[in-house]
Amino acid sequence: MNSVLSSTPAISLHEVSMRYSGPTGPAGPALADVSLDIAPGEFVSLIGPSGCGKTTLLRLIGDLLQPTGGQLRVQGKPPDVARRHRDYGLVPQAPVLYDWRTVLKNVELPLEIMRVPPAERRQRAAALLALVGLAEFQGHYPWQLSGGMQQRVSIARALSFRPAILLMDEPFGALDEMTRERLNGELLTIWRETQTTIVFVTHSIAEAVFLSTRVVVMSPRPGRVAHIVPIDLPYPRAMTTREDPHYFTLISAVREHLREMH
Amino acid sequence: MDRARDSLLVPAATILLLLVAWEGIAYLRLNGLQEGTFAYRQQQSYLPYAHKVLQAYLANAPSFLDAGLVTLGNAFVGFLIGAAIGYALALLMSRSPWVARSFYLYIVGSQMVPVIALAPILYGIIRDETILKITVAAYLTFFPVTVNVLRGLQSVDPPALDLLHSYAATSWDVYRKLRMPASLPFLFNALKIASTGSLIGAIVTELMGGNKGLGVLILSLQYNTYGASDKLWALVIEVAVIGMLFFGAVTLAERLLVPWQAEYRRPARRTR
Fold first, then answer.
1. Interchain CB contacts (distance < 8 Å): A and B
2. Which of A235, B119, B219, B234 is exposed most, by the fewest CB atoms within 10 A?
């Protein structure tokens, strides 16, 4: 791989801070001096106590919020430029599917907005639904699917325009443990197949350790990067990974770091 | 199958029961009185026999239906115009808070004027029976449409807007793909209210004078033929049926155009 390209981080944060004011949320500092570089193809989880600014950080990267201080680069570009270049796909907490569109049409939505021709749109959306295991459900409406299936549609939709980065905000938080574990495995497969850079917000230590190349532990509000735990478990990870003693060691390490701050 | 049969049986039984009670009460009033006498006509104005009402309808069906079609036609044209104006106004108001603030008060104020007071003033300006009725029907339709659609356009969730923002969607895309579809259930709610409203508006306008229509016929039956309450009842029932058909047509259109709404949902063939 070209050494210049590979040395450019997919996402680069330099002393980024965010201070809320006014009625949009609790006023005051939400993030303080967050510095972090994420390499292309990495899978980085953000974990921390509620209100530590994990979601805020994700929204800053996605240009859904603008920082009050510091420097932010996404694919080497300012976040608003990266957003307009459609460099990232968003997987929000709730699946946010349109009730009036079939599953296939929901996945086609970003492609419609990006003016992709109908035939190509349909073919790409169908291929992604096959990737997330929902090929037979193309003609269903979102409300006819289970929560886990809806979240898979949301992931397929985010991948439909082949973004370099996926921003995932607790996508599996509302699912039961079994569904969550299955989707974790599927997500890793997709990540390896698409070589996407993933930033993943979660409350679950086990989920963060299972998925990530690195786990970023954040301090309570105002959020800072307290620790970065590299996860040196080999890929592909599977159910056996969840029984690996080293997996438990890493979970304990992350838990210790979280506990230190309380 | 059972459900389909029940949905026909229950209303049919209700109507039958109602007719029996009606005939019974009328019998208590009219029993022993000679048809055509003053006493009969006096009692009949309290409640005519149901079968006499039906006879009166059958005898006058062509002229009654004619009047009904005139009024319904005018009301429907006004309904369509009012819905279009109401929707456009809601779009405009949702685009610009400035327009919304300056219009809202006047729109609400306009609805405080009763049609009975407004129609004569409008007649002074318009001076055409048909256009006047269409105007009144449109006037009664645009208000619920504007208010409801405005709410519908603004009812979208912030996460849904974030998502479109993340695709760098244009503001027109946000309307076309999200706000306008999301407003459809609200639009149909308003149209259901307006369907009966526009019909009543047209009839009330006709009551104040005119040459054709249900209101004109009601007025002439009231004044010209004392004791012809069987005819009056027959006509009023026709009005009710027309109103229900109008309402039913709007509901059917909603079912076809907005089938994703919770009350129309059918579970998928697979188990959920």
1. 60
2. A235
Among A93, A110, A140, select the one facing B268 at the smallest CB separation: A140
pLDDT beyond 60 at A209: yes
pLDDT at A26: 67
Q: What is the pLDDT of residues A10-60, one digit of tens each?
A: 999 999 999 988 666 667 888 999 999 999 999 999 999 888 889 999 999
Please tell me what DSSP assigns to residue A160: T
Strand ranges (E), B27-110: none
Q: CB–CB of B260 and A141 under 8 A?
A: yes
* Identity of the residue in B168, B184, B268 whose CB atom sits nearest the CB atom of A84: B168
pLDDT of residue B2: 63
Question: Which residue from B minimizes the CA distance to A98?
Answer: B178
Q: Which pLDDT does position B209 carry in this prediction?
A: 79
The CATH fold assigned to A3-87+166-260 is Rossmann fold (3.40.50)
For A90, the closest of B157, B163, B258 (CB atoms) is B163
CB contact under 8 A, B166 and A144: no
Angstrom CA distances, B58 to B41, B61, B65, B235, stand at 20, 5, 10, 11
The answer to whether the CB atoms of A96 and B157 lie below 8 A apart is yes
**CB-based contact, B165 to chain A, within 8 Å:** yes
Domains plus CATH for chain B? 1-47 (no CATH), 49-261 (1.10.3720.10)
Please give the torsion angle defined by the CA atoms of residues A55, A60, A64 and A66, in that order, rounded to the nearest 10 degrees: 130
Q: How confident is the model at residue B259 (pLDDT cuts 50, 70, 90)?
A: confident
Set of chain B residues whose Cβ sits within 8 Å of the Cβ of A84: 168
Residues in A touching B173 (Cβ below 8 Å): 113
Inspect the interface and report whether the beta carbons of B181 and A109 lie closer than 8 Å. no
Q: Do A83 and B165 touch (CB under 8 A)?
A: yes
What pLDDT, in 10s, does the model give residues A68-111? Answer: 999 999 999 999 999 999 999 999 999 999 999 999 999 999 99
Residues sharing a CB contact under 8 Å with residue B14, sequence separation 6 or more, in sequence order:
none
Per-residue confidence (pLDDT) for residue B107, from 0 to 100 = 85
Residues 6+ away with beta carbon under 8 Å from B121: none
Tell me the backbone φ, ψ of residue B4, rounded to 5 degrees: -65, -40
Query: Over the stretch B19-63, which tens digit does the pLDDT of each residue have?
Result: 999 999 999 988 888 888 888 888 888 889 999 999 999 999 999
A135 and chain B in contact, CB less than 8 A: no
Q: How many CB atoms lie within 10 A of CB A130?
A: 13
3-state DSSP assignment of residue B219: helix
Residues in chain B: 272
Domain ranges, ordered by start, for chain A: 3-87+166-260, 97-162
- Note whether B267 contacts A: Cβ–Cβ < 8 A: yes
Q: With an 8 Å Cβ cutoff, are A64 and B157 in contact?
A: no
